[in-house]
Amino acid sequence: MTKENEKPTHHDVMPSMAKFLSDLWFEGEFREQPDHLTEIFKIFLETEMGNNLDLRTKMLSCIRTSTMLAKTLEPFSDKQIEKACRKVEKAT
Fold first, then answer.
1. How far apart are CA 65 and CA 32, in angstroms?
2. Are 91 and 16 in contact (CB under 8 A)?
3. Distance between CA atoms of 92 and 12, rounded to whole angstroms?
C-alpha cells in the first residue's frame, strides 16, 4: 500500500499487476479456481458454521472476483499471459 498523500502512478501499478499475474500463472490452474471455490464453499455452507450471512457474503465475493479474473484471462493462452507479463515488467 502507498503511504498517505503518495499517489501511485500507472508505472507503479502495472508492474505490480504484471507480477501478480505472472505469479498466478506459475501457480497453475487459475482458470479452474472459480469452480474449486464454488465446490469448497458449497460443502462448507452445508455446515452449521457456514450458516453466517457475513461469511456467505465474503465467499460470494471471492467467487465473483475469481470468476472475473478467469473470464478476463480466458481468451489468452498461458504463453500469451506470460509473455505480456514479462513485457510489462521489463518496461519499467
1. 13
2. no
3. 8
Confidence of residue 11 (pLDDT cuts 50, 70, 90): low
pLDDT score recorded for residue 7: 66
Cα separation, 41 vs 20, in Å, equals 24
The predicted model scores a pTM of: 0.65
Q: How far apart are CA 26 and CA 85, in angstroms?
A: 12
Length of the chain (residues):
92
Mean pLDDT (the chain, rounded)? 80
Is residue 60 within 8 A of residue 35, CB to CB? The reply is: no
Q: What phi, psi does 47 have (nearest 5°)?
A: -90, 165
Scored b (16 or more CB within 10 A) or e, 7-25 reads eeeeeeeebeebeebbebe
Q: Are residues 37 and 63 in contact, defined by beta-carbon separation less than 8 angstroms?
A: yes
